[in-house]
Every structure is written in structure tokens, then in C-alpha cells.
Amino acid sequence: MDNNHTQNFDHLEYTVIRSNRKSICIEISPDLQIKVRAPQKMLDSQIRAFVASKDKWITDHLAIMQERLGSQAADTSRKPLSGSELAALAQKASIVIPERVKHFAPIIGVTYGRITIRHQKTRWRSCSSSGNLNFNCMLMTTTPELIDYVVVHELCHRKQMNHSPLFWAEVERALPNYKELRKELRQYSC
Known about the structure:
Blueprint: E1 4-9, E2 12-19, E3 25-28, E4 34-39, H1 44-53, H2 55-69, H3 83-108, E5 115-118, E6 125-127, E7 133-136, H4 144-156, H5 165-174, H6 178-185
Parallel strand pairs: 2-4, 5-7
Antiparallel strand pairs: 1-2, 3-4, 6-7
Helix pairs in contact: 3-4, 4-5
């Protein structure tokens, strides 16, 4: 059986890539191709339902990427985001990220202080000793699963302000597939 095949959902065409992974994720390549990476045994109906649930995220990110490409489609160098694009990402992040923090904090068993959204050039996030959380608005250019990973990572620092085995055990308790997500996050740049 071919592990890769193209499907359509409503107005979206996407390629399904099956592998020995544990979770499903969506990627949009620089040439605006939508790829859904899924576990080998996941049913097509489950994949379609997942894509349907991420329709708005996909549409928003396609629009952002199309705007970035603009008339410079032939230019292969990475173009910095405009001020309006960064503002749109920050606005979206200020809605999405606090929702995910609120979702995961009780699961991890921690409290938190202020949540700040910034455009940082080298960091996805940070956590202060007083419990304030800072997130990079560029997280909105990744996947929902990676946003959850970054949120969980920072919330676990509320228990362990280090990257010790105890810290990673906390992360794994909330996200058993964190190693896979951590690896995927490296494919993105701030």
C-alpha cells in the first residue's frame, strides 16, 4: 500500500504521509503544499476529521504564506514578515496561547502569572521565576501540536526551572510524544 496519497477536503487538497509516528500533524511547505503526517494505522476518516477541525488554521496560514510570497514568488531567499503580518500573528497568538495555557495548567498542576506575546528573534518562549510566561508570536506559523508542546514546556518550568530528567518527566506526563514534537519544532525558525 502506498504510504503517500493526495486527498481533498472541501476546498483543500493535501497529501497524506503515513509513517511510524504516534501523532498526526499538518505542515504547509514553502510552495504552499499541505502535508498531513499521520500514523500508519490511522483511518482515512480520522485524518479527514482532523483536517476538518484545522480548516481555519490551514486557511489562515496559507493566507499568511501567500502574502509573504506575494510578487516575490521567484525569490528563493526568506523574506522578513512585514509589520502588519507580525501584528496579525501577535493578535492571533494573544487569543490562542492563553487558551492553551489555561487548558494545560490544571493538567500539569501549576499556576502562572502574566502571559506576554512578543516577536523574539531567537527564542520560542521563556518563563520567569515569578511565573510570568513569554511566548513568541512566530509560534503561530507552526502547528497547533507544536504550540501545545511549547506551552507545556513552559508550564513544566513552573515545577522544575531546569531541563533535568524530572523536568522532562513532567513534560512527558502531559505530552507523551514530546520528543517527536521537540524534533519537529527544530524545523521552524523564530
